[in-house]
Specification:
This protein is mainly α. The chain contains seven helices and two strands, in the order E-E-H-H-H-H-H-H-H. It has a two-stranded antiparallel ribbon with strand order 1-2. Helix 2 runs antiparallel to helix 4 and helix 4 (about 90-110) runs antiparallel to helix 5 (about 120-140). The longest helix has about 35 residues, at about 45-80.
């Protein structure tokens, strides 16, 4: 079977395989639309469900950050005992940028991926923008340490006012 182009001169052969693929694609379209509509109508979590999920993310990140710091302390002690140089020990700012900042970025991304309760999207977006700003500050001033993020009283207050008990302290 041949397909004639708009000008009549172009002829593109429509093979049985191309015809079958087109038919399958057209049959799959309504299914995709129904599935998409079903996902769009899923109920948003309650604030309590959201805060529980967010605090779980922050707890995991806090545990990971504690392990990163413990590994750094152990590496530092080992370097002192052996007298061997270590890039992380010799340049703690590099370590902060290479290990700590990425974990904070993962935490922020994971928090943003949790579906927000109805009506709270703007508030949470603004809160996470502030968190991202502090993470960027930590990247640009790594000598300030994790307290740039975890000791920011305004951020702590905002997380707590929403009901998140862990996220403002990580």
């Amino acid at each position: 079977m041949l397909k004639v182009g708009p000008g009549g001169a172009d002829r593109v052969p429509v093979t049985p395989l191309r015809h079958r693929r087109l038919r399958l694609a057209l049959l799959a379209l309504p299914v995709a639309l129904v599935v998409g509509a079903g996902c769009a109508q899923a109920t948003a979590p309650s604030q309590e469900e959201y805060t529980a999920a967010a605090d779980a993310v922050c707890t995991g990140s806090g545990d990971k950050l504690a392990q990163i710091e413990q590994d750094y302390v152990e590496e530092t002690l080992e370097a002192e005992e052996t007298g061997e140089s270590s890039l992380n020990v010799d340049r703690p700012e590099r370590w902060m940028r290479a290990k700590v900042v990425p974990e904070y970025k993962r935490m922020s991304g994971n928090l943003k991926s949790i579906p927000a309760p109805d009506g709270d999207v703007a508030y949470l977006s603004d809160l996470y923008s502030d968190l991202d700003r502090l993470i960027a500050d930590l990247h640009s001033r790594p000598s300030g340490g994790r307290d740039i993020v975890r000791a920011d009283e305004d951020l702590q207050r905002r997380f707590a006012s929403y009901g998140m008990e862990v996220c403002g302290t990580v």
